[in-house]
Amino acid sequence: MKMIEKSEAAWRGEISPMGAPVNELSKLTMDVWFFNGMSNMVVVNTAEGLVIIDPGAMVQTASSDGTLLPDCQRKHQAVVESCGQPVSTVIYTHGHIDHIYGVEQYRCDSRRERQPLPNVIAQEAFAARAFRYRMTSGYNDIINGRQFGGSTDMDAAGYSEDFTYPNILFRDELDLKIGGKRILVRHGRGETDDHAWIYLPDERIVCTGDFFIWAMPNAGNPQKVQRYSLEWATALRRMANLQPEILAPGHGVPIIGQERVSKALDDTATLLEHIHNQVLQLMNKGLRLERIIESVKIPDDLINLPYLRPSYDEPEFIIRNIWRHYGGWYDGVPSHLKPASEKALAREVISLIGDQDKLMERVEKLMAEGDIRVATHLAEWTCLAGADNAAAQDLAKRVYLERSRRETSVMARGVYSAAANEISD
Fold first, then answer.
1. Among candidate residues 314, 240, 227, the one with its CA nearest the CA of residue 270
2. Does the pTM exceed 0.90?
């Protein structure tokens, strides 16, 4: 299925927009190409050379014939074959590892052709992000593995210093004119603090980066640093005010048509504002986090849209992230301020009911009744209290796998799958 056909089918909800990527360059306009890969890349043809937005990831991807190549290398091959021009400028929408690799290939091309090396542009917070990734590289490899498939082995997709550091950093806005093409680069905090979005006014194309990913915004992510829901919504509304005719997302397929683009941007902003405002209102009334999670409601006409389904992140995580932004990590439950260890709680519960077998029987009953949340707590206690009990270990593993099966978001499924794997290990 070609890109435009895939875009149409995704808009109608007939296919998953986050399914197998096309992995080829598709023309959006006469001078703008779009590559749908592990992450997306946009290429702008100018009289002074190509401008590349998000060159790619180091993760290996498979082509239709089964050939494996790093995502950024596959993109480079497509650019060389289809565009045939040197690269003048590379723009990073943000510093996540699926967007910033592969520039050195274009620098090598420039050296070979005796052309100036491409400028690399990013928002100024990119520098602090790179420093933090160096400090926490091991931890980030572990949590990325857990998030994307339930494994803690992420050597193939972990942080690497092999990206090209930007030589141009901007703060709020950067207006470029390259080879006659106007390129407007704008900062907005959203999934990251260094996020940028790009508008091509001559073509009326907005390149959103991960402000839009054909899923509920990644504004909660339980294992990552702070996200910024309200500022995210503000950035989306700024984009919509420009009335772009094409939306080139950070992941998934393009959206074609001014009315559709405006609706997608507005709906996503509305969802974020809806959650943010409810959480803040309830915090100001003094409710605990647990009560807020129970109380926040999202209209079905938003959450059921094909581009806002909770397939990656989910509302509960976004609520927790907004709470953390304004209220810190304490959730309002006194016993959680300086809690006893889970192992101590497990021993106490078992001492109250008499033996571990009764607790395990209760877990099985809760599973059968469908109360998977409570079953998860009790299964963890049976596991902690019986580290040498193979039956308890097996029960906890089954609960985690069942929990993973029932979850809708990639993040939740990955965490529970990883928990099952860790018991096996």
1. 240
2. yes
